[in-house]
Automatic annotation (TrEMBL):
Signal peptide limits: none
Protein known as: Uncharacterized protein
Highest taxon of source: Eukaryota
InterPro entries associated with the record: Ankyrin_rpt (IPR002110), Ankyrin_rpt-contain_sf (IPR036770)
Length: 430
C-alpha cells in the first residue's frame, strides 16, 4: 500500500481519503489489482476506524474479501484485534463475509469462537446461519474449535442455535455439524473425550442429534478416546456419562461394511422395489403428484364411506347364497381392493423421508383398522374371511408375478459379441 494511502488510513479521515482520490483517481483500483495485499480496509478494520472502514466498503466492496499477505481478510483482523462493533457493521453490510476463508481455511466464525465473544458470535450466526457448516483445511467446524479451546459459552451458543432452528434445512445442519468429522475422523465429542473434558462432553451429550458411536479413522469411538487417557487419568464420571447416553466401544459395535463391498453385491428384491419407487417419485412432477394425491384421497373417501354405511339385516337374510357371493365379490372385493391400492399409491407418492413415512403409518393404520372392523361387523365371520382371502390372494399373485419378472430380468444374460480375429500385416485385431 502506498505511503500516502497508509497515512490517510491511519488518520481515519474520510475527507483526507477523498482528497487523495482527487490527486490520483486510480489509486484505489491499483490496490484492488493486487491479489494479496494489506488494503486500507484491512488497516481501518484492525485499528477500529469505523467511518473510514464503512466508506471504503461503499467505494470498493471487493476490499472486504481480499486477503493480505498473512492470509487474513478485514473481518478476520477486526475479530483478532477485538473490534467487535466494527466487525458487526461489516457483516451487516455484507453477511457473506462471515464465510470468507483465510489462512488454514479459517473463517471469521472460527476465529470469533477461538478468541471468545458470545455476542459477536451470535451476530455472525444471525447474519449468516449457513456459516456454522464451514470447515477449515483440517475439516474442523466452529464446534471443533470451541471444544479444542474449551470455550464453553461459545459451545452453548452454537449448540443452542442449531437446536432452535425452525427451517426445513436446520435439522440437516444440526445433524451435519454435530457429527462432522475432521481430517482424522474425530467429531467434537471425540476431541472432548481425548482431553478428558467432562464439561465439554456433558454439553455435547445434551444434543439429541449427536451420534455417540461414530468411529474415527483409528476405529475409536468417543468412549475409546476417553479410555485412551489411561485408567489413572480418565474421569470416571465422564465415562459413566457417555455410557448412560448410549456410548459404546468400537469393538462392541457391528462392523460397518465398506461402500465398495456393498456395491459389488447383487441387487436384492427389496432394493429393486425401493429403487423403483424412488425413480418413480423422481420422474414425477409436483403437479402430477398433487393431482394423483387428490384422486387417491377421493377414492379412499368413497370406498371408506361404502364400508361405513349400515347394512340392512333383513334384506341380507332374504338374499340367496349366489346373491351373497355376488355382492361380496363384486361390491366388497372390488371396493376393498380399490381402498388398499389407494392407500399404497398414496404411500408411494409421499416425499422421501422417515418423518413422512412414520406419520403416514400412524394416520393410515387406524383408518385401515376402522375399515376392517366396519366390514367385519356387516357379515358373518365365514363370509368376511372368504372376502379377505380373495383380496390377499390377488395381492399375492401380483407380488409373485412381480418377483418372477425381477428374477427373469436379473438372470437374463447379455449375449457376448462375436469375436473375429483378423490378421493383417502380422497384426491381430479383435
Amino acid at each position: 500500500m502506498e505511503s500516502k494511502f497508509l497515512l490517510v488510513t491511519q488518520s481515519g479521515s474520510v475527507d483526507a481519503l477523498y482528497s487523495l482520490i482527487k490527486e490520483d483517481q486510480s489509486i484505489i483500483q491499483k490496490v484492488d489489482d493486487c491479489l494479496f495485499i494489506h488494503t486500507p480496509l484491512h488497516e481501518a478494520s484492525s485499528t477500529g476506524k469505523m467511518d473510514l472502514a464503512m466508506e471504503l466498503m461503499v467505494l470498493k466492496p471487493s476490499f472486504a474479501k481480499k486477503l493480505n499477505e498473512d492470509g487474513l481478510s478485514p473481518l478476520h483482523l477486526a475479530v483478532e484485534n477485538q473490534q467487535g462493533e466494527l466487525a458487526s457493521e461489516l457483516v451487516k453490510f455484507d453477511p457473506s463475509l462471515v464465510r470468507v476463508r483465510g489462512r488454514g481455511g479459517m473463517t471469521a466464525l472460527h476465529l470469533v469462537v477461538k478468541k471468545g465473544d458470545v455476542d459477536l458470535l451470535t451476530e455472525f450466526l444471525r447474519a449468516c446461519p449457513q456459516s456454522i457448516r464451514d470447515a477449515n483445511v483440517n475439516g474442523e467446524t466452529a464446534l471443533h474449535v470451541a471444544v479444542m479451546n474449551k470455550k464453553y459459552e461459545e459451545l452453548q451458543v452454537l449448540t443452542g442455535w442449531m437446536q432452535r432452528g425452525r427451517k426445513s434445512e436446520d435439522g440437516c445442519t444440526e445433524n451435519h455439524v454435530l457429527n462432522k468429522r475432521d481430517r482424522n475422523g474425530n467429531t467434537a465429542l471425540h476431541l472432548a473425550a481425548y482431553e478428558n473434558d467432562h464439561k465439554g462432553v456433558k454439553k455435547l451429550l445434551k444434543c439429541m442429534s449427536l451420534n455417540r458411536n461414530i468411529k474415527n479413522k483409528s476405529g475409536m469411538t468417543a468412549l475409546d478416546a476417553l479410555r485412551a487417557n489411561g485408567s489413572h487419568k480418565m474421569n470416571k464420571a465422564t465415562e459413566k456419562l457417555i455410557k448412560i447416553s448410549g456410548g459404546k466401544t468400537g469393538e462392541s459395535l457391528s462392523k460397518v461394511e465398506k461402500m465398495s463391498v456393498f456395491l459389488r453385491k447383487p441387487v436384492t428384491f427389496r432394493e429393486y422395489c425401493s429403487t423403483g419407487i424412488a425413480r418413480y417419485r423422481s420422474r414425477m412432477s409436483d403437479g402430477a403428484r398433487n393431482s394423483l394425491l387428490v384422486i387417491t384421497a377421493l377414492i379412499i373417501t368413497a370406498t371408506y364411506q361404502t364400508a361405513a354405511q349400515p347394512l340392512d339385516k333383513e334384506k341380507q337374510d332374504m338374499l340367496e347364497w349366489n346373491e351373497v357371493i355376488s355382492e361380496v365379490v363384486c361390491l366388497w372385493g372390488f371396493n376393498t381392493t380399490s381402498f388398499f391400492l389407494s392407500i399404497i399409491l398414496t404411500f408411494i407418492l409421499l416425499p422421501a423421508g422417515k418423518a413422512y413415512t412414520w406419520w403416514y403409518f400412524f394416520i393410515a393404520g387406524p383408518l385401515v383398522c376402522s375399515y376392517w372392523t366396519s366390514t367385519y361387523m356387516k357379515y358373518s365371520p365365514s363370509i368376511f374371511f372368504d372376502m379377505y382371502r380373495l383380496v390377499i390372494l390377488g395381492f399375492l399373485i401380483y407380488l409373485i408375478v412381480f418377483y418372477v419378472r425381477w428374477k427373469c430380468i436379473r438372470q437374463k444374460k447379455v449375449l457376448k459379441p462375436k469375436t473375429e480375429l483378423i490378421s493383417e500385416r502380422n497384426k491381430t485385431m479383435v
